[in-house]
Amino acid sequence: MLSVQNISLRYGKRALFEDVNLKFTPGNCYGLIGANGAGKSTFLKIISGDIEPTSGSVLMNPGERMSVLKQNQNAFDEFPVLETVIRGNQRLFDIMQEKDAIYAKEDFTEADGNKAAELEAEFAEMNGWEAESDAGSLLSGLGVGEDAHYTLMADMNPAQKVKVLLAQALFGNPDILLLDEPTNNLDIESTIWLEGFLMNFKNTLIVVSHDRHFLDNVCTHIADLDFGKITIYGGNYTFWYESSQLAARQKSDQNKKNDEKRKELEEFIRRFSANVAKSKQATSRQKMLEKLSVEDIQPSSRRYPFINFKPEREVGDQILRVEDLSYRLEDGSYLFKNLTFSVGHKDKIAFLCKDGLAVGALFDILTGQKQATSGEFKWGVTVTNTYLPNENTTFFADGDLNLVDWLRQYSVEKDESFIRGFLGRMLFSGEEALKKSTVLSGGEKQRCLFSRMMLSGANVLLFDEPTNHLDLESIQALNKGMEDFPGNVLFTCHDHQLTQTVANRVVELTPNGCLDKLLTFDEYISDERVKAQKTELYGELV
Q: Residue 87 and which of 4, 136, 319, 438 are 20 to 30 A apart at CA?
């Protein structure tokens, strides 16, 4: 059992948390959600002991072990990969070291023998004999092959280091597991493996994530951080979101009687429970939603931006044709080559690649930011496109501009009230619209760029990882905006739910050409024929 009692954290006059009292019980996974800057990561650091609260305490049962996903990728550079994972259970690792030191003694004494016997008993009780194989299994599940298990961490690339540190957190069946954004930089296969692992984790899990699909798959409860308080609700993220939206609509409906509202909520719980019970995500450890009472459902105070892309004109018959396109780096290696595809009416295409830089390079070429090494492409004469790149610093180079003047650069209509209307949709109202671009957070910059894209009136939208830096509310709004857009969308995104709900076609860049399928994202990743084709196509890029 993990509990927090009267936790408060203040920075001067500002209170981040105030008198938080919670209990987290084994067998449950708690998804900690809240707006950017609300203090989700800080709360995890208080639980782990990395930050001291202003007041209050964190209590664990004696003898329980807590494991935390480390954020410093270079902290274990001097150690081999497999050893780094085993260090996730520090006591077990210390026993291994102590045993080895005793057995290495030339003058082995009776006291050494007694100590070794004690250590061996504790070692066996902790399943120490399976430590290396267990660590190896975690690494392999996350896509770190056996050939890398004895490589120094310093020699691993950043994406692989993330996987090793995640394996370290999972190692040794901790009693309490804290994961802050565990799916960041994970590929599809590793994310699916992690979901399966956590769905079967039988101890206490608290996770912070902006991936709604991940939260839906692994969470039994949602811990909502709002107004300095944390409230725990039964169910996954979608249940929390839809029920809170329903409760908010009911609250504003003064004409509906209380008993009618209650019946509507009860019917919502019943329908949602039936859907979860049938889904592939349902597991024995998930609580039955029928046990919820109507009183558990409360409206949320969350504010959602309004993202609505409207094309000024429809596209004609010709949209985009790409022929034998290739892009080579300065070191001679190719990000992609011999790429051929065309875009048709109503296509919303999710682009995938094992190398995250490849799709960004393709989009840069298609929008004139880069020159292809070979091949050609042609946009239709009726096409106008607008692009959200992964790197957006050039858009905010002039830090002296306030947001009204910044957005005015991209608008034909210069009237301030018109510009403020677009900023208001992105939650920049009143004095917020006069903020300088130099003080914007990553998420605020993304929302500004969505305003720029909406003003463009383009009929083709291109996005390179548009959910980066966004909170769940902005991701939800963006998801709807991309779904509702009547034109073409070309995008790459790590958000599973957005990709599944927006894309009606998947194009995966491979070492030679591409896989191009008229499938949804879920269909694509589960299709056995696609898996066989990928096995044939993938190799080293030369």
A: 4
